[in-house]
């Protein structure tokens, strides 16, 4: 019973994640109050379609960050996934074959990153810069300029809604959350926090830091590839540069969602809301008629506020726990 | 106040009558616009913070505030940045906000197609300028198919007599524009075995181009010519720093500093034989004007790929302006009037007489100006993957169209 409670306690959102949820709801309320279509299925479908790629990619990145490493390769993997979908999903492979192929590519890049970082002990920042550049080059080789086409069946299916009630993108985000909730209850889920907090202590406790980091990179690679798959559905075509600017937003989503960039604290739940904040903020500022240049300023300020409040609430909770103890 | 208004009307009426008569005589008839109709029009920029985009946006804003458009539109400008998802989101917001027309600089030629179709289904006019999209329902206003790349390549070959080392300053890898131009350039230069090619990607950026050109000059000092689109000002700086007494044949964009240098006899003697051409910022205001005429029902284009005439000014046609507009064939301003980075092709005396120097620098309309009648439309050719899908490029799309070889190939 107590073990089960401990597990549930680990899954409870951290202070940072709760702050992210509150900020997301507040921004959405302002957006809905200023834009009539915000609460309609059309408005919600657009909002979640804008969020889903960033949310999935950031969820993958969260695993690596929790394990105490950095990953700059996501935009390269997303670029490859996008151009592979645009060049193969209409042909003989079909959409399902193309999806399996891109997931395997994502896993392979993750495996390479993980092997270089976990087994050879190379710096993750340096390693993943290399794989990012290499992947972007491969994407350019596969599709030198925007073009190609993505299977129309999945484009329509994954960008629309279910029975004109639930946006498909929201269902996909919920699925990612479900996977995370299951994953966090496994041995890997425990190990990733332990390794991210203190790799040496984790080793002494019998956990394999190498295997944990390797798996984190592989799962992250799969998530980036799936994000590229969803991006392909959003755009209906391929563009080797479509993911170029995504990386900073991914790290912003992770940080706003309450995950410590030092590792060991946070989770995918907060990250998903972090991505939601960045998407809904853009919609809200547009609806309020804010001049374009203010969007960047607001993004930065909200990120600072979210991180500040998240860290402050964590600190308060820690102090309270120490007093109780 | 009323007395002033009466006096104002007294002298204004004959002036306006005379102006109207003159305009009618000259063939410029003000377009008749529907009375009382009001439209919500958006401008969505992607790249921002550079001179090209700023001048294009200012020209568009100036037109939006020029009568009769000033009474007909609620105009809003949005900067989406270079992220495809961000631009998709902003375009969706504009459609949801009840836009009647959206003029946008597409960050991707294909990635926006879904949201463009969404807009078309809601009867929103979707106009892309300078860079094109492949969504069939969108209108593209560009000058790509007029062949800047193959014609300027042939012009360089003619200047070199068919022999020499040419540096190609490609744009941004992975963009349709760079891909098309690169194929055209390599095709034309490839016809001449005496041409030795060196290449780099300058990302349409002066600083990157200058650095890359400096490295090339250090490694190979025998460069005879440089082809650029944007970034040519940086290339010229590198040449003047590293080889000040032996400049080169150059083709590139239309910065005022570059055009002044092209026309400078001293620099010409040192070997600067320049060509200033390619798509200019005026493409944006021209697209806005076409879009407004379609929106107000004055114009029904027969095609979706509309052509904006490509500027083409070789070194021997440089003429310095004395006023604030391009009139009497002048095409460059004195250095005291504008910074060297100012792009001269933001003005166009023929197609955009409503704009002057101040309007493209500040976005304010020219006082007393009204929208003039549009010149008859011309249309772009098909370029698969650039402005259409499932289409064929016209025969000879890789070849120069108006610059004839003065040296026989091979």
Could you characterize the architecture of this molecule?
The complex is a heterodimer of chains A (325) and B (410). Chain A has a single domain (9-324), classed as ABC transporter involved in vitamin B12 uptake, BtuC (Orthogonal Bundle). In chain A, 77% of the residues lie in helices and 1% in strands. Chain A has helices at residues 2-11, 15-34, 41-66, 74-88, 94-119, 124-142, 152-159, 168-184, 187-197, 199-204, 209-235, 246-256, 268-288, 292-324; strands at residues 161-162, 166-167. Chain A has a two-stranded antiparallel sheet. In chain A, helix 12 (246-256) crosses helix 13. The longest helix of chain A has 33 residues, at 292-324. Chain B has 410 residues and is of the alpha/beta class. In chain B, the strands form two sheets. Chain B has a seven-stranded mixed beta sheet, sandwiched between helices. The longest helix of chain B has 24 residues, at 2-25. Chain B starts with a helix and ends in a 31-residue tail after the last strand. Mean pLDDT of chain B is 88; it is low at 1-31.
Helix-strand layout with pairing:
The complex is a heterodimer of chains A (325) and B (410).
Chain A: H1 2-11, H2 15-34, H3 41-66, H4 74-88, H5 94-119, H6 124-142, H7 152-159, E1 161-162, E2 166-167, H8 168-184, H9 187-197, H10 199-204, H11 209-235, H12 246-256, H13 268-288, H14 292-324
Antiparallel strand pairs in A: 1-2
Helix pairs in contact in A: 2-13, 2-14, 3-8, 3-11, 3-12, 3-13, 4-5, 4-6, 4-11, 5-6, 5-11, 7-11, 9-11, 12-13, 13-14
Chain B: H1 2-25, E1 39-45, H2 51-64, H3 69-72, E2 73-79, H4 84-96, E3 101-104, H5 113-121, E4 125-129, E5 139-142, H6 148-160, E6 164-170, H7 176-190, E7 195-201, H8 206-219, E8 225-227, H9 232-242, E9 249-252, H10 256-263, H11 265-269, E10 273-277, H12 283-295, E11 305-307, E12 312-314, H13 357-362, E13 378-379
Parallel strand pairs in B: 1-2, 1-3, 3-4, 4-5, 5-11, 6-7, 6-8, 8-9, 9-10
Antiparallel strand pairs in B: 10-12, 11-13
């Amino acid at each position: 019973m107590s073990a089960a409670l401990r597990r549930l306690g680990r899954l409870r959102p951290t202070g940072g994640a709760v702050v992210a949820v509150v900020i997301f709801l507040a921004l959405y309320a302002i957006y809905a109050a200023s834009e009539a279509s915000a609460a309609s299925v059309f408005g919600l479908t657009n909002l979640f379609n804008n969020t889903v790629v960033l949310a999935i990619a950031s969820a993958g990145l969260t695993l690596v960050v929790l394990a105490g490493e950095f990953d700059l390769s996501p935009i390269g993997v997303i670029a490859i996934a996008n151009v592979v979908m645009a060049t193969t999903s209409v042909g003989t492979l079909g959409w399902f074959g193309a999806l399996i192929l891109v997931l395997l590519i994502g896993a392979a890049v993750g495996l390479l990153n993980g092997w270089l970082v976990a087994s050879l002990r190379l710096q993750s920042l340096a390693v993943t810069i290399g794989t990012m550049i290499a992947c972007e080059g491969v994407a350019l080789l596969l599709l030198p300029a925007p073009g190609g086409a993505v299977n129309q069946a999945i484009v329509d299916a994954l960008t629309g809604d279910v029975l004109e009630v639930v946006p498909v993108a929201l269902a996909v985000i919920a699925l990612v959350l479900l996977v995370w909730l299951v994953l966090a209850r496994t041995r890997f889920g425990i190990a990733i926090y332990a390794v991210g907090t203190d790799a040496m202590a984790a080793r002494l406790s019998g956990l394999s830091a190498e295997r944990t980091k390797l798996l984190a990179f592989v799962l992250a690679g799969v998530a980036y590839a799936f994000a590229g798959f969803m991006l392909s559905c959003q755009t209906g075509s391929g563009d080797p540069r479509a993911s170029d600017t995504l990386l900073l937003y991914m790290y912003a989503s992770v940080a706003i969602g309450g995950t410590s960039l030092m590792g060991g604290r946070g989770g995918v739940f907060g990250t998903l809301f972090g991505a939601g904040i960045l998407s809904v903020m853009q919609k809200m500022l547009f609806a309020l008629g804010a001049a374009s240049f203010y969007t960047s300023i607001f993004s930065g300020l909200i990120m600072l506020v979210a991180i500040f409040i998240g860290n402050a609430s964590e600190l308060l909770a820690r102090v309270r726990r120490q007093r109780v103890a | 106040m009323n007395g002033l208004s009466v006096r104002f009307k007294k002298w204004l009426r004959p002036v306006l009558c005379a102006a109207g008569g003159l305009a009618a005589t000259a063939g410029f008839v003000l377009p008749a616009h529907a009375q009382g109709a009001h439209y919500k029009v958006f401008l969505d920029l992607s790249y921002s913070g550079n001179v090209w985009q700023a001048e294009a946006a200012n020209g568009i804003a100036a037109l939006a505030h020029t009568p009769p458009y000033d009474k007909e539109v609620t105009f809003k400008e949005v900067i989406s940045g270079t992220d495809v998802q961000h631009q998709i989101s902003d375009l969706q917001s504009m459609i949801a906000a009840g836009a009647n027309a959206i003029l946008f600089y597409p960050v991707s030629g294909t990635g926006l197609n879904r949201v463009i179709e969404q807009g078309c289904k809601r009867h929103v006019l979707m106009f892309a300028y300078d860079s094109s999209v492949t969504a069939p329902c969108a209108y593209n206003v560009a000058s790509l198919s007029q062949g800047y790349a193959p014609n300027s390549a042939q012009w360089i070959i003619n200047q070199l007599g068919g022999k020499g080392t040419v540096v190609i300053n490609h744009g941004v890898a992975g963009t349709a524009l760079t891909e098309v131009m690169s194929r055209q350039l390599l095709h034309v230069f490839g016809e001449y075995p005496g041409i030795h090619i060196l290449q780099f990607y300058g990302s349409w950026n002066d600083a990157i181009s200058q650095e890359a050109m400096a490295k090339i000059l250090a490694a190979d000092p025998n460069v005879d010519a440089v082809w650029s689109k944007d970034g040519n000002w940086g290339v010229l700086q590198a040449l003047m720093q590293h080889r000040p007494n032996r400049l080169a044949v150059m083709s590139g964009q239309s910065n005022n500093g570059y055009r002044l240098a092209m026309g400078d006899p001293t620099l010409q003697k040192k070997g600067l034989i320049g060509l200033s051409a390619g798509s200019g910022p005026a493409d944006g205001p021209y697209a806005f004007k076409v879009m407004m005429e379609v929106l107000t029902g004055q114009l029904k284009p027969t095609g979706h790929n509309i052509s904006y005439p490509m500027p083409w000014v070789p070194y021997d046609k440089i003429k310095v302006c004395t006023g604030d507009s391009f009139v009497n064939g002048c095409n460059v301003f004195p250095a005291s009037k504008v910074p060297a980075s100012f792009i001269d092709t933001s003005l166009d005396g023929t197609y955009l007489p409503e704009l002057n120097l101040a309007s493209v620098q500040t976005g304010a309309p020219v006082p007393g100006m009204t929208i003039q009648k549009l010149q008859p439309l011309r249309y772009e050719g098909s370029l698969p993957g650039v402005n259409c899908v499932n289409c064929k490029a016209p025969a000879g799309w890789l070849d120069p169209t108006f610059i004839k070889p003065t040296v026989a190939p091979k």
